[in-house]
Amino acid sequence: MNRIVYSIDGKELRNVELDDAVFGLPVNEDVIWYAINNELANKRLGTASTKDRGEVHGSNAKPYKQKGTGRARRGDKKSPIMVGGGTIFGPKPRDFSYSMPQKAKRLALKSILSLKVQNDTLKIVEDFSVESGKTKDLAGIIRNFGAEERTVIILKDDDPLVKRAGANIPWLRFLSYNRLRAHDLFYGRRIIVLETAVKNLNAFYAGAGTEPGRDADTGEAAV
After folding, report:
1. Which residues contact 68 (CB under 8 A, 6 or more apart)?
2. Residue 25 falls inside a structural domain
3. What pLDDT digit, counting tens, does each position of 98-123 carry?
4. Within this chain, do residues 80 and 133 fall inside the same structural domain, yes or no?
5. N or C: which end of the chain has fewer CB within 10 A?
6. β-strands 12-17, 151-155: how paired?
7. Band of residue 215 on the pLDDT scale cut at 50, 70, 90
8. pTM over 0.90
């Protein structure tokens, strides 16, 4: 399919080809759900920790004798039913991360890109940089595309000046074409893709997942 490439002023320039194997797939909601939950699980710290009755500080002695007081039987003060006692089945430090099949993760990302094209929330913009590194210069560009919240810019490479300019915009995220995140893409209200990044996406996700200009089988630089 063909899509319009816009200038940084919001004017139409030319058309660019979008690979149907990346931007024209049926949306697979199930695999998108699994990819987002996988990313959220991998980000969890898993540092929550509680003490059981063997770890809390206290005496092991019975507070009073077993019989003859008219009161219920009572163990030591570290019992879980006592104030300040141990916790029953409380959380312990653990690793919540798990791996997801690469094919499924790639399908999720392509499904999200296809969904954004269908919803017309994906805009392709000519390659640009922010030489000044100032937030107001970048804000002026993205404002031309109706980006006001939850905006994602997909870059063709790691541009430190653009990232520095957008560091003060809390609802703006930057992604590289070969390091996409399902959560940011799916919840982005507006997706801005640089023109070269579109071509890289076509080559990277429609092929075997290798860098543009590299052989799909060996990974070596193409001659």
Report:
1. none
2. yes
3. 999 999 999 999 999 999 999 888 88
4. no
5. C
6. unpaired
7. very low
8. no
Within 10 angstroms of residue 2's Cβ, the number of other Cβ atoms is 9
Are the CB atoms for 190 and 153 separated by under 8 Å?
no
Q: How distant is the alpha carbon of residue 33 from its chain centre?
A: 12
> From CA 204, how far away is CA 197, in angstroms rounded?
10
Same domain (yes/no): 81, 122: no
Q: Among all chains, which residue has been given the structure tokens 């919240």?
A: 149
Parallel/antiparallel/unpaired status of strands 190-194 and 172-176: unpaired
Is 147 within the bounds of a domain? yes
> What total of structural domains would you count in the chain?
2
Residues 114 and 184 in one domain: yes
| 34 is a domain residue | no
The amino acid sitting at 171 is: W
Instruction: Give the residues across from 201 on adjacent strands.
Output: none
Q: For residue 18, report the phi and psi dihedrals to the nearest 5 degrees.
A: -105, 125
